[in-house]
Write a structure and sequence with these properties.
The chain is an alpha/beta fold and 428 residues long. The chain has helices spanning 58-69, 144-151, 212-219, 237-240, 250-265, 281-291, 314-321, 330-335, 363-375, 396-413, and strands at 5-10, 20-25, 39-40, 82-83, 100-105, 111-118, 123-128, 135-141, 157-164, 170-177, 189-195, 223-228, 269-279, 299-303, 349-355, 381-385. The protein contains 10 helices and 16 strands. Helix 5 (250-265) packs across helix 6 (281-291). GO terms for molecular function: aminopeptidase activity; serine-type peptidase activity.
Length: 428
């Protein structure tokens, strides 16, 4: 706070993937006066293109417009911080607008460091806190070397768009497409859905990153999809609270529904090769998605998954599920128990991974699932990492290699032998 002005990081209206710096007065208004709305200091003044990809039909566009018109988010104004050009130093300015920020203020809030974290390579700038707008002093880090290196690499094509789901809500979807994919060609690619789905979480943001998704799209020619449906953050309290007392139901259904839409709408997705993977809560969602009777996914990887919420951290679990007794939410706990669905994994490829020193999701979770699968006569793949905690930091390379090998095996088995010589070609 500075001179009765408060600063905070927030999400602009109808842009859940963005994060910007806002300013608001902390002086109470006079009686009868209207409280001034927050001012966004880093929002892009010109509206960014909002047209969805060509593959979205008119019905979806109409519903999206209706949702935008009914949006109950706060109105935001968007002046940009003014910049002062240094005499001897050229300040780097990206051609791509910065859409995801973090900020660190000095002890007395006289200065702050503004980190631009995406969608392009991150940069850091120093500002002086002044009115009416902060004053740019200097660029602290522009990551020129990293930017030059990235410019010489074939990076994934990124497409972000909304899809209407059950209840009239929007799921925000991001596709990581192989660098060589051409939408006008007949080549078809495998689809891998990365899930998390925990309450208030977001996978689809404008934050820049290079991770395993980058490797799979560039090295394996896989399409990666990330889906934020009901229960995710950044889209208001109503959508967030849809999963209350019902973990493992609505968020899983949204992943399946959107994946079906992508599979049936995008001609460059191979319907025979669709997989899902997740870590922690994402492993829980991935396992339930594979067990679904809709058979959208052919295989799944669950890393350190929650299997039974009775065995997880009570502070977290009871916040969203209440108590597991008959007078409160016994049914919710029972229906979310993945081990009771072990028989639904028959004739499906399932890979479960866990570390023995996991102090977040205890190894007992995976062991309960392993026993249930064995009792049900289900064949599956299992990987246990000795003395590794929840992050599996000491075996990341081995973990990702083993998961990639599992996905290769899965996709090979989904294609008839006569077509394996040209996996990208459609069987029709």
């Amino acid at each position: 706070m500075l001179h009765r002005i408060s600063y905070f990081l927030g999400i602009p209206k109808s842009k859940p993937g963005q994060q910007h710096l806002f300013r608001v007065t902390s002086v109470p208004p006079r009686t009868g006066a209207v409280l001034p709305p927050p001012v966004c200091l880093t929002c892009v003044p010109e509206p960014l293109p909002t047209e969805p990809p060509y593959f979205m039909d008119d019905l979806y566009l109409t519903k999206i417009k209706q949702l935008d018109d009914d949006d109950d988010s706060a109105t935001i104004t968007t002046p940009m911080p003014r910049r002062r050009k240094p005499k001897k130093q050229k300040v780097f300015q990206s051609e791509t607008p910065c859409l995801f920020h973090n900020v660190i203020f000095s002890p007395h809030s006289t200065y702050f460091v503004l980190d631009c974290l995406g969608p392009s390579v991150p940069t850091s700038d120093l500002y002086k806190t002044k009115m009416p707008n902060p004053l740019h002093l200097m660029c602290l880090q522009n990551n020129t070397q990293l930017r030059d290196k990235i410019s010489k690499m074939a990076m994934p094509q990124i497409k972000t768009f909304p899809v209407i789901i059950s209840g009239g809500y929007q799921a925000h979807v991001r596709l990581h497409l192989p660098p060589g994919l051409r939408e006008d060609e007949i080549t078809r690619y495998p689809l891998v859905v990365q899930v998390y789905g925990g309450p208030g979480s977001q996978l689809v943001t404008e934050r820049w990153r290079i991770d395993w998704n980058t490797y799979l799209t560039g090295n394996k020619d896989f399409i990666i999809a990330q889906i934020d449906g009901r229960g995710s953050g950044g889209q208001g309290q109503q959508l967030l609270h849809k999963v209350y007392y019902k973990l493992g139901s609505i968020e899983v259904a949204d992943q399946i529904e959107v994946t079906e839409y992508l599979r049936d709408t995008l001609h460059f997705i191979d319907k025979r090769r669709v997989a899902v993977w997740g870590w922690s809560y994402g492993g829980f969602v991935a396992a339930l998605a594979l067990a679904s009777s809709k058979a959208v996914f052919h295989c799944a990887v669950a890393v350190a998954p929650v299997i039974n919420w009775k065995l997880y951290d009570s502070a977290y679990t009871e916040r969203y599920m209440g108590l597991p007794n008959v007078t409160e939410n016994y049914k919710g706990y029972d229906e979310a128990d993945v081990s009771k669905k072990a028989h639904l994994f028959k004739d499906k490829m399932f890979y479960i991974v866990h570390g023995t020193a996991d102090d977040n999701v205890h190894l007992q979770q995976s062991m309960a699932m392993v026993r249930a699968l064995s009792d049900a006569g289900v064949l599956f793949r299992q990987q246990i990492y000795t003395d590794e905690n929840h992050g599996l930091g000491g075996v990341k390379r081995h973990l990702y290699r083993s998961m990639a090998h599992f996905l290769d095996d899965c996709f090979q088995k989904q294609v008839p032998p006569e077509f394996k010589a040209g996996l990208r070609n459609d069987a029709e």
